[in-house]
Design a protein that fits this description.
By secondary structure, this protein is α/β, with parallel strands linked by helices. It contains 24 helices and 29 strands. The strands form six sheets. It has a seven-stranded mixed sheet, with helices on both faces. Strands 24, 25, 26, 27, 28 and 29 form a six-stranded antiparallel sheet that branches. It has a five-stranded parallel sheet with strand order 2-1-5-6-7, sandwiched between helices. α7 links the parallel β12 (about 215-220) and β13. The protein is flat and about 95 Å long. The two termini are about 25 Å apart.
Length: about 700
């Protein structure tokens, strides 16, 4: 798998062979031929099936080897056990692409068969789509390479939405529902088991089309998160939003995904953090695909998050206000000039503030609705407009439809409409709005979600991107494979992170001498690579302030170490200064199997252990992003100086978060790092790491 795979001959093949073609055009093996004919495909079509001499006017061949041409694409729809032999023939004919509908590979616990077809394809120079997929469609050129029943009917007009799904059945079912709602697609691709070409390969190819305005992905998992992030970055450069329906978040769903497409699903918290960091729009259902398809098909984009609500129902306006607030948008009171423009068109019992309650009386004046609409569209403080129309029918409904279409045609600001009406009374109005390209909803929540996606996309585009340079040579080779707290802190200290004053001692006499140097009170800790959870083992003594206390504690903690783990290797006893000032926080690294190093920051103690109050990002991060992470914490007011307390050194904590994230990128053998607690001192006094744990890769 690699970037910039040339998929031109796959999406625009000159000749297509269909292995397993059937005379029954309504069967799975018959539909590919049926669809190619229905879409009036102009290239060569070559059915392959030894049962027939011809099929529906096309010469039929007994096998791939006997084809009169070398096709650009071979569609394979036979049982899994026959696929390797067919691919061997494809290799002989130098076929560049094979679309494998067949299932029964890794998803059916037969990895050997899957490995075999991968090997044959690699040796023969064939790029594979699938297996266990439903193919793809290029609506621009009218080329369906699929058996999906969702494509029955008249060929669909191409639009601006591209959709790539690992699941074939869900992919084409959700496509069909979206198309039925008026969303126009440009490409639909299903990738199945992704033994070769995956969703990222297709995404990289598709975003080269300048007419694509939204890329939607249904993902069960990825093998290489860095390639996905590169796709998202390139899409952003082209101002193409990426929306992802990521499944497999729960433990039950993860197991289902493994059996479905043999996917590695990943950790929900990590995916959510990555989406937020890189500007991916997270979605969760078919309705989200439909709604994003509506708003991003339009060329109109929001310039901010301020929304004006025009409503004929005061109650609906209040509901929408709450929903927009829930989705992070703003409903500001309109300026006085705009209010004055609206007042002549609404009755005294309406409202011109925002939401603008026009009331149903607005239909009595033909200039009322367009007057209100123009006023809010002209308001410089408003970025988007949502119109809520209740049960308004007849001539009034027809006139509002015309006014809404006219306003949408002449403004650069996004407009959407929630028309709360049943099909019997409103079908004509709703259809006119759909045809005219006005994003239409019959759910206030879905309307608010769609507007929030526009607002979020503007925010993503407005943020400057900074490439973070990470330099340095790994220090881990200088440290033992099994690391203690002492070793972990030597690593942090090497990279410039402040740690407690401390020294590793090998005898009681040395402990007593070092305690005098450091100054009381001190802490004693037994250092052993076999005892990572020191508190649980009882090998820590805190707040020791005299020689007698040290003598008593020294013997006790060594005895506890022996009881806890009789065979434990003892590195020594760490003498450490006591830190009794500052707020306890934690900073950590975990190497995710998909995305690599993830940096986390949180308040220490109960906040992280019980409340899970943490913020995550994909490493590396700069200090500005680290500060953002810290501000996201529910406990941030404690750092900021809540209730008259002194403000803590947040800048110093942000520096440590950024530095730790960079360490994780340099130290490739680092699996986990947990600096906890980090004492964040008062403002301008810095931070001190009091304890740390490091896990690293075992030597191969």
């Amino acid at each position: 798998m690699s970037f910039n795979v040339d998929l031109g001959r796959l999406f625009r093949p000159r000749n297509i062979a269909i292995v397993g073609a059937s005379s029954n055009l309504d069967s799975i093996s018959g539909r590919p031929l049926k669809l190619l004919m229905r879409y009036k495909y102009k290239g060569g079509i070559f059915p392959v099936n030894p049962k027939y001499d011809s099929l529906h006017g096309f010469a039929c061949y007994p096998d791939v080897r006997s084809l009169s041409v070398s096709p650009d694409v071979v569609i394979i729809g036979v049982r899994a056990s026959l696929v390797p032999g067919i691919l061997e023939q494809c290799a002989e004919k130098k076929v560049p692409f094979a679309v494998i509908f067949s299932s029964g590979f890794a998803e059916a616990d037969d990895p050997y068969l899957q490995e075999r077809i991968v090997s044959i394809a690699k040796e023969g120079g064939i790029r594979l789509i699938g297996p266990n997929c439903q193919g793809l469609v290029n609506f621009v050129d009218g080329i369906p390479l699929s058996f999906s029943a969702s494509l029955d009917g008249e060929p669909l007009e191409p639009g601006n939405i591209a959709y790539i799904s690992q699941s074939g059945a869900f992919g084409f079912a959700s496509f069909a529902l979206s198309a039925d709602s008026g969303v126009k697609f440009r490409y639909v691709v299903t990738t199945g088991n992704q033994v070769d070409l995956d969703a990222v390969d297709f995404g990289q190819y598709i975003i080269q089309d300048e007419e694509v305005k939204l890329l939607i992905l249904y993902l069960e998992g990825l093998q290489d998160g860095s390639r996905f992030l590169e796709l998202v970055k390139r899409a952003r450069e082209k101002e193409i939003p990426v929306a992802v329906l990521k499944v497999g978040k729960s433990e039950v769903a993860k197991e289902a995904a493994k059996s479905h497409t043999a996917a590695l699903t990943g950790d929900k918290v990590v995916w959510d953090a990555v989406f937020k960091q890189y500007g991916v729009i997270g979605i969760s259902d078919v309705e989200d695909i439909i709604d994003l398809g509506h708003v991003f098909s339009s060329p109109k984009r929001a310039k901010g998050k301020n929304v004006a609500i025009l409503t004929t129902s005061g109650g609906a306006g209040i509901i929408m206000t709450d929903l927009l607030d829930e989705f992070g948008l703003k409903v500001p009171i309109l300026n006085l000039e705009t209010q004055e423009k609206i007042k002549p068109y609404i009755p005294p019992f309406g409202s011109c503030l925002n939401p603008v309650d026009m009331t149903a009386q607005v239909i009595n004046d033909p200039k009322g609705f367009p007057g209100c609409l123009d006023a809010v569209l002209e308001c410089p403080d408003i970025d988007m407009v949502t119109v809520i129309i209740s049960m308004i029918t007849g001539e009034s409904g027809r006139q509002m439809t015309k006014d809404l279409i006219a306003a949408n045609d002449r403004t650069y600001k996004p407009i959407n409409c929630s028309w709360l009406i049943d099909r019997k009374h409103g079908e004509n109005f709703l259809q006119q709005l759909k045809v005219a390209g006005v994003p239409l909803f019959q759910s206030l929540r879905r309307s608010a979600f769609a507007l929030s996606a526009l607002g979020k996309w503007n925010e993503i585009l407005s943020k400057s991107t900074v490439e973070i340079t990470v330099k340095g040579e790994s220090y881990l080779p200088n440290l033992p494979l099994m690391m203690t707290e002492y070793d972990a802190k030597r690593l942090l200290e090497h990279w410039g992170i402040p740690v407690t004053r401390e020294r590793l001692c090998l005898s009681l006499e040395e402990v007593l001498s070092v305690s005098e140097e450091i100054g009381y009170p001190i802490a004693l800790k037994v250092m052993s690579p076999d005892i990572l959870h020191k508190t649980e083992a009882g090998v820590i003594a805190l707040g020791l302030s005299s020689e007698e206390q040290i003598r008593n504690a020294y013997g006790r903690i060594l005895e506890n170490a022996n009881k806890y783990s009789p065979d434990a290797r003892i590195q020594g006893v760490l003498v450490q200064e006591m830190v009794d000032d500052g707020l306890e926080c934690m900073v950590g690294i975990k190497r995710d199997p998909i995305f690599g190093p993830i940096v986390v920051v949180g308040l220490g103690g109960i906040y992280v252990e019980v409340l899970g109050d943490v913020s995550l990002r994909h490493a590396p991060v700069d200090e500005s992003t680290a500060y953002e992470m810290i501000r996201e914490l529910k406990g941030f007011p404690l750092l900021a100086g809540a209730r008259g307390r002194k403000k803590k050194d947040i800048d110093a904590l942000a520096r440590v978060v950024s530095l730790v994230s960079k360490i994780a990128c340099i130290e490739s053998d680092l699996l986990e790092l947990d600096a906890n607690p980090i004492f964040v001192l008062d403002e301008n006094k810095g931070v001190i790491v009091a304890d740390a744990l490091v896990l690293r890769k075992a030597k191969e």
